[in-house]
């Protein structure tokens, strides 16, 4: 039986963030234990001001890993890449938890989609959020992360527009057309959905936006019928901690999360610089 | 009891065979098919025989038939405007024209003048606009329809033959277009025009219920084998048209609309099959409400509307001005999409 790895929160964090992290650690009592003085794993509240600076301060020999939770846009891709380089030098693994991509059903779904669908020609994704989300750049960063996790990073943005109640991004991944939208509505479900279509098969994903363990729904369609994938009643936060701990326990392990975040931040900057509309 | 109205049909392809003849067979008190015209004499004879009707090979033969009260225009798109004008001039009592009513604004104006001069009812075969589920949805969301900020039409369907064969028995159908490999910009532009006027057009009158005025197409892209992504602005609302036809079996035909407080999702059955009306889900902070489908579908709705208008028992649900506005909207989207495919900028 392995001993629990010590964890703590670094830098400024909201009360809600602190409570949620404690709740997750309490659900992993064999894997994690809070020990602020000698923590090997560190949580960073990505919604707090200066989260990248907090991350940079946490990256040092002796810190096995850092989990950045829901990083807000702001830091440049260059600065994020510098942090990634520093983490590699220090031997600190950095995991990033974004709203939808970190759901534990997403990675298995992406692997299954890659196996089942060849020649995806159309990807359609809609994020529906309530009125607590007012900054569409925040939502789009999460949306880009989800697209990357499922089918890879966008290669090209063909059109982007935002308005008070959402955005539209028409893009491409390889030869596939991508239609991304976000819409504001208090109506349920608060979720991101994604459908990938090839000439002969489909893959579907609906990821809840909330902090609960409400599972994502994933299913595939082909000539034989439709098959729903097993559900994961685990929060994205708990899955992210397990992932970070497992990576930190494997010598020589690294995660691409921070580099991916830098690339997504760069894409976000390019899109928001040209999109039309209001706030 | 008033005798059923005599129907003449122009064009005897799959739409006539799988949609209108089965629908009219369910309305024997209102309509009786008296003649079916097709340029292919064998097809005209075979299809007319199914309805106990006379075959014809020319439009004029249909117009000259003394038993024809109303004419259904089920011919290729490019003939619609000319044929509707001829029907009006022939003194018939009504027209049901398959969508699109015409393909250009000039044709739309010609139709407006002809129908106005004749003073007869014109119903466009936009079955979703007459779908009982959609009409119930309109009633249910009447108080907040003006607050809709985003509309999405998703049409993901198998190719038509899958459903035609479940609605009737088709003796012959046009040959499918040959595979042409990689398409150039002009070819993609023509296909996106066909996509708008042949597929997306089903839902454009519904889009107009939320966003009456077409502003511009922001982006359009054709997706092989037959699909596309079109983003447009209408009445300052965002409108997304997602369409994709391919082999396979699963249909997904949805119209969605969102306000800050509520959402509407209307799920339609595929074309051709007579599987009842759309199902509707309305959601808000309090939860969700479903409107269950009815056995009647929009095809019956079109014909009942025409009968009611001719018999004087109904007011037009869609006056001529709205019919023309629907067409103007659709041709605007088609032209905008063509332009976007040909000249679209990349960011």
Protein topology:
The complex is a heterodimer of chains A (279) and B (347).
Chain A: E1 5-10, H1 15-26, E2 32-34, E3 41-45, H2 51-58, E4 65-69, H3 77-90, E5 93-97, H4 106-116, E6 122-129, H5 136-151, E7 156-163, E8 166-173, E9 176-184, E10 191-197, E11 202-208, E12 217-222, E13 225-228, H6 236-248, H7 257-274
Chain B: E1 5-10, H1 14-25, E2 31-37, H2 41-50, E3 54-56, H3 59-64, E4 70-73, H4 80-89, E5 94-98, H5 105-118, E6 122-125, H6 132-140, E7 150-158, H7 161-167, H8 185-198, H9 204-210, E8 214-223, E9 226-234, E10 237-246, E11 252-258, E12 262-268, E13 279-284, E14 287-291, H10 298-311, H11 320-343
Helix pairs in contact in B: 1-7, 4-5, 5-11, 8-11
Briefly say what this structure is.
Chain A has 279 residues and is an alpha/beta fold.
Characterise the protein shown here.
In chain A, 33% of the residues lie in helices and 29% in strands. Chain A has helices at 15-26, 51-58, 77-90, 106-116, 136-151, 236-248, 257-274, and strands spanning 5-10, 32-34, 41-45, 65-69, 93-97, 122-129, 156-163, 166-173, 176-184, 191-197, 202-208, 217-222, 225-228. Chain A has an eight-stranded mixed sheet, covered by helices on one side. A five-stranded parallel sheet of chain A has the order 2-1-3-4-5, sandwiched between helices. In chain A, strand 10 (191-197) and strand 11 form a beta hairpin. Helices cover 37% and strands 27% of the residues of chain B. Chain B has two domains: 5-120, Rossmann fold; 129-301 and 328-343, Dihydrodipicolinate Reductase, domain 2. In chain B, helix 4 (80-89) runs parallel beside helix 5 (105-118), helix 5 runs antiparallel to helix 11 (320-343) and helix 8 (185-198) packs antiparallel against helix 11 (320-343). The model of chain B has no long low-confidence stretch (mean pLDDT 94). Chain B has 347 residues and is of the alpha/beta class. The chains are: A alpha/beta (279), B alpha/beta (347). The A-B interface holds A 121-122, 124, 126, 128, 131, 156-161, 163-166, 168, 170, 177, 179, 181, 183-188, 195, 197-202, 221-223, 226, 270-271, 274 and B 149-150, 152, 154, 156, 218-219, 221, 223-225, 227-229, 231, 238, 240, 242, 244, 246-250, 258-263, 283-285, 287-288, 344, 346-347.
